[in-house]
C-alpha cells in the first residue's frame, strides 16, 4: 500500500506566494503632496497680507502725524511754550518765597558769572530797545535805520579782504614805495617809504574801491525793499484816512475842518471847483 502524497504547510505556501508576487524596488522618490504645497503657498500669502496691512497702518499714522504737524501754528506753539515757562517761573518763585528762601539767589546757582552778566546785558539792551521805539527826532530815526542796515549787511568777507590786501602790498613793493622788513622774531613788517601806501585823513583811495556784482545786487535789493515798505505804509495810511483825492490840508486839525465844510458846502461849490480845475473862471 503506497503512502499518500505529502503537501506543504500553509505558512510555506503563503511565504512562497508573497515572495513571488512582491514588486522589486525601482529607486524612484514619491511625488510631493498637492495639499501640502497649497497650504504652504496660502501661509506665505497670509504673511504677505499681514505685512502689507502693517505697512499701510504705519504709513497712515505717519501721514496723520505729519498733517497735524503742518496744521499746527508755530506761533501758537511758541506762545504756549512761553506761557508755560512763565507759569513755571511764577510757581517756583512762589514756592521758594513761601518757604522763606531767596528766589534770585537760588536761581543764580544754576548759572555762571559770565552767563549771568551776558543775560543782564541782554535784558538791559532789550528794555532800552523797547523804550526807544517811539519817534523822537529825524536824527535818531536815521541812526536806528543805519544800525538796522549794518545788522542786515551780514558777515564781512575776510578772505576777499586778505586777498586784496596782499595784492596791494605786492603791487606797492614792486613799485618801490613799500619795503618788507623781517624782524628778529620772524615777523614781516611793511615800511611805507614815502607815506603814500597807508591811508591818512587826507587820503582819497577809498573812492577808488570797486564793489563786486554780489554787493551791488544786495544794495539794489535792499533799496527795492525799502521803497516797497514806504509805498505800503503810504497806501495803508491813505486807505485809513480816506486820502484818495488831492491834499487840501496842512495838518490833522485843518483836515477835520475841511471835512466839516465839505459835508455842508460841497454840493454848492462843486461847479465852481470844477471850473477852477478846467481854468474857465480865470
UniProtKB/TrEMBL annotation:
<dbReference type="Pfam" id="PF08231">
    <property type="entry name" value="SYF2"/>
</dbReference>
<comment type="subunit">
    <text>May be part of a spliceosome complex.</text>
</comment>
<feature type="compositionally biased region" description="Low complexity">
    <location>
        <begin position="16"/>
        <end position="30"/>
    </location>
</feature>
<feature type="compositionally biased region" description="Polar residues">
    <location>
        <begin position="69"/>
        <end position="78"/>
    </location>
</feature>
<protein>
    <recommendedName>
        <fullName>Pre-mRNA-splicing factor SYF2</fullName>
    </recommendedName>
</protein>
<dbReference type="GO" id="GO:0071014">
    <property type="term" value="C:post-mRNA release spliceosomal complex"/>
</dbReference>
<keyword id="KW-0507">mRNA processing</keyword>
<keyword id="KW-0508">mRNA splicing</keyword>
<feature type="region of interest" description="Disordered">
    <location>
        <begin position="1"/>
        <end position="78"/>
    </location>
</feature>
<dbReference type="GO" id="GO:0071013">
    <property type="term" value="C:catalytic step 2 spliceosome"/>
</dbReference>
<comment type="function">
    <text>Involved in pre-mRNA splicing.</text>
</comment>
<dbReference type="InterPro" id="IPR013260">
    <property type="entry name" value="mRNA_splic_SYF2"/>
</dbReference>
<dbReference type="GO" id="GO:0000974">
    <property type="term" value="C:Prp19 complex"/>
</dbReference>
<feature type="compositionally biased region" description="Polar residues">
    <location>
        <begin position="52"/>
        <end position="61"/>
    </location>
</feature>
<comment type="similarity">
    <text>Belongs to the SYF2 family.</text>
</comment>
<dbReference type="GO" id="GO:0000398">
    <property type="term" value="P:mRNA splicing, via spliceosome"/>
</dbReference>
<keyword id="KW-0747">Spliceosome</keyword>
<keyword id="KW-0539">Nucleus</keyword>
